[in-house]
Every structure is written in structure tokens, then in C-alpha cells.
Specification:
Blueprint lengths: L14 E4 L2 E4 L4 E7 L14 H13 L4 E5 L12 H15 L7 E4 L3 H10 L3 E4 L8 H8 L3 E4 L17 H19 L6 E4 L8 H9 L11 E3 L4 H7 L7 H13 L4 E4 L2 H13 L6
Helix pairs in contact: 1-2, 2-3, 3-4, 4-5, 8-9
């Protein structure tokens, strides 16, 4: 993915309108993870009750999160599929409760067009789609909703993605995929200024693929903000031989590297610590950039 790509047609947007709530990307920002699922790899079940989810979201905003990402279907490797009805039942009450309480935008982490529509109607202001709008009807829904949308790379599906991922050049192939999805989104009517890109750390990548992608992240920089998510993932645990609850320091190192290589948003479970790390990154940014 290069600046000469046909779809890099505007300068990178620094401020996004998320259904009336602003997301300022002039400096790196933190997206707080709120999984309202029973089986997410790190915090499954902790925030599935609406009251607990509200308290956690409010805490993350107090800690400095610029946006809250709510998901009702686990996308960990091997996770079972969730029905549309179950996903709606998990996320909509939480979004409805949080939307009037939070000054920051809410993102809906889903690949289902019906969930996208219901979530935005309930108060969400961004769609975060690990399938990059490949589900039937997702492109049309994103264009219709006219809120920012994050397109993520994944080789395979959550059920199969870690079986045997293969790449000749992981950075180039991720870039080619994302570029193609940008083209499809724009052709469907999604406004270019509403597009973010996620290289999909841990989604159909080996340990070596993940670190090659992190090392070459600047090759994916273009006119679209980059969102990265490495918080507590196996790419950290497998490198260090540490369980999920002992990966904070490694996650902060990965987030720092990503931001210094051009990431605009870091998606994390550990908001307060990541906010501090990103403030240091912002302070060290060359003033002529």
C-alpha cells in the first residue's frame, strides 16, 4: 500500500464525525475494549451484565479512552459463531444505556449488517468490522449509515484463521487486501474520510507474521488512519511464555512501536497505561510532521 495507490485520494483525516461525537486523530488515541460476551479470550463474561458494562465503559473514559468499542461476538481463534439475535441482545441494551452517558463515541465491533444498523440506531457512531465489509449486505449498510468504518484484514475466519496461515510477504499482502476493500467500500458509497484500516494482528497470522507486520507497519501508512489491536494477544504471550494477565508491559511496547510507525488508534483492554504510553509517543513526535 503506497501513497500512489488509486484510492489514496485525500489527505489523512484528523477529525472524524462519529454520529455527532468527534474523534480527534491529530494525536494518537486509545480505543477501550468492552466485550459483552461470555467467551472472549481475555475478559469473557466480566462485562456481560449491563450495569457492569456501563461502569467499565465510564472507567475507561475517565482513564482517557477516546472511543469505546463494544463487541457481542468473540473473534478469538476457534470461537463459535453467534446468531444475529444473540449478538443484538448482548450489545443493544449496553449501547442504549451508554450513548447518552458518554461524551466519547461508541464503536460497534460486528460483521453483521443488521447489528450495524441496530447499533447505530441505538447510538453507536462507528463500525469496526473484522471482515472488512465482506458479509452479504455489509457494504450497503456501511454506505447507508454514513459513520466511520474500520476495515480489518483477516486470512480465513475466526474458526479457521490460525490453522495454517501462509504469506509470501505479509505486509504487502495485507496492504493489497486493505486497498481492495477500500476500493469496494468507496465504490459502494462509503465516504473516503470515513474509512480506517486495521492490519489485523493475530487474525490469520503466525507469530513471525505478526512481528513482520509490526516491523513493516509504516508500509501501510497512507491517507487512511491505522487502527491496531495487540492488547494481551497470543503474539505477546507466545513470545514471552506468559499468560493473558501478564502481558501488559509487552502490550505497551507493541503499542508504542505501532504509534511511532504511524498508527492513529490503539485498541486495548489496558486503557490508563496505554494512554500514558501514547502521551510519551506524542511528545516525542517530530514537530515538522
Amino acid at each position: 500500500m503506497t501513497e500512489s495507490s488509486a484510492f489514496f485520494i485525500t489527505e489523512m483525516v484528523s477529525r472524524m464525525n462519529c454520529a455527532g461525537k468527534k474523534l480527534d486523530l491529530s494525536t494518537p488515541q486509545v480505543m477501550g475494549i468492552l466485550n459483552v460476551t461470555p467467551d472472549s479470550f481475555s475478559d469473557g463474561g466480566r462485562w456481560s451484565a449491563t450495569d457492569a458494562a456501563i461502569a467499565q465503559a465510564e472507567l475507561m473514559v475517565e482513564q482517557g479512552a477516546a472511543i469505546i468499542d463494544i463487541g457481542g461476538e468473540s473473534t478469538r481463534p476457534g470461537a463459535p459463531a453467534v446468531t444475529e439475535a444473540d449478538e443484538l441482545a448482548r450489545v443493544i441494551p449496553v449501547i442504549e444505556a451508554l450513548a447518552p452517558r458518554l461524551a466519547v463515541p461508541i464503536s460497534i465491533d460486528t460483521s453483521k449488517p443488521a447489528v450495524m444498523r441496530a447499533a447505530v440506531a441505538a447510538g453507536a457512531g462507528m463500525v469496526n468490522d473484522v471482515m472488512a465489509l465482506q458479509a452479504n449486505g455489509a457494504l450497503a449498510a456501511a454506505a447507508e449509515l454514513a459513520v466511520p468504518v474500520c476495515l480489518m484484514h483477516m486470512q480465513g475466519s475466526p474458526r479457521t484463521m490460525q490453522a495454517d496461515p501462509q504469506y509470501d510477504d505479509v505486509v504487502a499482502e495485507v496492504g493489497e487486501f486493505l486497498n481492495a476493500r477500500v476500493g469496494a467500500a468507496i465504490e459502494a458509497g462509503v465516504v473516503a474520510d470515513n474509512i480506517l484500516l486495521d492490519p489485523g494482528f493475530g487474525f490469520g497470522k503466525t507469530l513471525a507474521h505478526n512481528y513482520a507486520l509490526l516491523s513493516g507497519l509504516e508500509r501501510l501508512r497512507g491517507d487512511f488512519p491505522l487502527l491496531v489491536g495487540m492488547s494481551r494477544k497470543s503474539m505477546l504471550g507466545n513470545l514471552l511464555g506468559k499468560p493473558v494477565d501478564q502481558r501488559l508491559h509487552a502490550g505497551l511496547a507493541a503499542a508504542t512501536i505501532a504509534v511511532m510507525k504511524g498508527a492513529a488508534i490503539v485498541r486495548t483492554h489496558d486503557v490508563a497505561e496505554t494512554v500514558d504510553a501514547l502521551k510519551v509517543c506524542a511528545a516525542a513526535k517530530p514537530q515538522n510532521n
